[in-house]
Write a structure and sequence with these properties.
The chain is of the alpha+beta class. The chain has 3 domains: 96 residues; 66 residues, Dna Ligase, domain 1, CATH 3.30.1490; 104 residues, D-amino Acid Aminotransferase, Chain A, domain 1 (2-Layer Sandwich), CATH 3.30.470.20. Helices cover 37% and strands 21% of the residues. The protein has 11 helices and 13 strands. The strands form 3 sheets. Strands 8, 9, 10, 11, 12 and 13 form a 6-stranded antiparallel beta sheet that branches. A hairpin with a 5-residue loop joins β8 and β9.
Length: 342
């Protein structure tokens, strides 16, 4: 079987900080890992780089017509908001592809819209609002607050300074996000409880929850308990070394089920499929509050964070996980037979 490994080859963002490129470049590690898994499964993988010249990528795909596209495109020409466009391209070409459909990708990337959709479905999210100017009212939100870009993933734009405790700091951070990341700022009440990363697989209507991973913070008191950009992407920083995912301890079965239920609801409500991750925290009453929903999260073997680690804990090797994801995509491409067999 021929499998095209599609990835974004432009390793910068149009806006943001210079070191944001570290997170963008992470797609190469993922590409190499998925490629090796495909070889182990006996498939014939080949790479297709996606940048601002979409016509070239389309011509290659039309000429070679792979059996399936493994989509790892997280941005186009440095714009993360164009990620959903590539899913439309795969559909337009009629080629089966892995991961969530365009609408789910677009919803999850627009955090303000995702919050509204989740809340309307009864999924708990933090109180918050989106600001297009730094002088807009905060409508009685209670400090501390967290300020982040409204259209980024991978913790881009989330630093220690993102946690603010007064109006002046909030306004300054909102202004920074708007100016540096060229998008509105999302301001939310900070939920200071235990944090969990919940990986899921399968279709939107019947997702399977993999073993929970808890984000354990061993940070000094002058740094917030926050999965910042440094904590996720920069191994040389204190934030990275003092932030460690682990199997949660001391959770009763009712709490575990409430976390799993909230994650399933978020996954299904936004229409994710194949694989995804839901990040949430417990509020002071022990109720799960969904912080973020991540379709097509990074796939990298080893380590303690991410869906590969959760799958391994469930007894699935990295190759098993890749095989499952591809099988889901191929199954969607099979023609549906009528009751008469025609």
């Amino acid at each position: 079987m021929e499998i095209a490994l599609a990835y974004n080859s432009d390793h910068t963002l149009k806006a943001g900080e210079p070191d944001d490129r570290i997170g963008v470049e992470g797609v190469i590690e993922q590409l190499e890992a998925v490629e090796q898994a495909c070889l182990e499964l006996g498939w014939k993988p080949w790479r297709i780089a996606v940048d601002g010249r979409l016509g070239a990528a389309v011509e290659i795909l039309e000429a070679q017509l792979p059996d399936v596209v493994f989509s790892m495109v997280e941005s186009v020409d440095g714009e993360s908001r164009f990620e959903p466009a590539m899913a439309y391209v795969w559909e337009w070409l009629g080629i089966p592809y892995t991961g969530s459909p365009p609408v789910a990708l677009a919803l999850a990337l627009d955090k303000s819209l995702a919050r509204a959709v989740l809340a309307s479905a009864g999924v708990r999210v933090p109180r918050g609002l989106t600001l297009g100017r730094d002088d807009e009212p905060l409508d009685g939100l209670r400090y501390p607050l967290i300020v982040k870009p409204s259209r980024e993933d991978g913790s881009h734009g989330i630093r220690s300074e993102s946690l603010v405790r007064d109006d002046a700091a909030a306004r300054a951070r909102v202004r920074y996000i708007i100016e540096r990341y060229a998008q509105p700022a999302l301001v939310e009440e900070f939920v200071d409880g235990r944090e969990f990363s919940v990986s899921l697989t399968g279709p939107a209507d019947a997702p399977v929850v993999l073993p929970l991973r808890e984000i354990v913070y061993e940070l000094p008191s002058n740094l917030p308990r926050l999965l910042s950009y440094e904590a996720k992407w920069m191994p040389d920083t204190l934030e990275y070394r003092a932030t460690m995912p682990a199997s949660p301890a001391g959770l009763g079965p009712d709490v575990v089920e409430s976390i799993a239920s909230a994650a399933r609801a978020a996954y299904s409500t936004l229409g994710l499929r194949d694989y995804g991750r839901v990040d949430l925290r417990l509020d002071p009453d022990g109720v799960p509050v969904v912080l973020d929903v991540n379709p097509n999260p990074p796939l990298v073997p080893g380590g303690t964070f991410g869906i590969a680690a959760a799958a391994l804990q469930a007894g699935l090797s990295f190759s098993d996980l890749i095989g499952f994801i591809v099988d889901q995509a191929l199954a969607r491409a099979q023609p549906v037979q009528s009751e008469t067999g025609r």
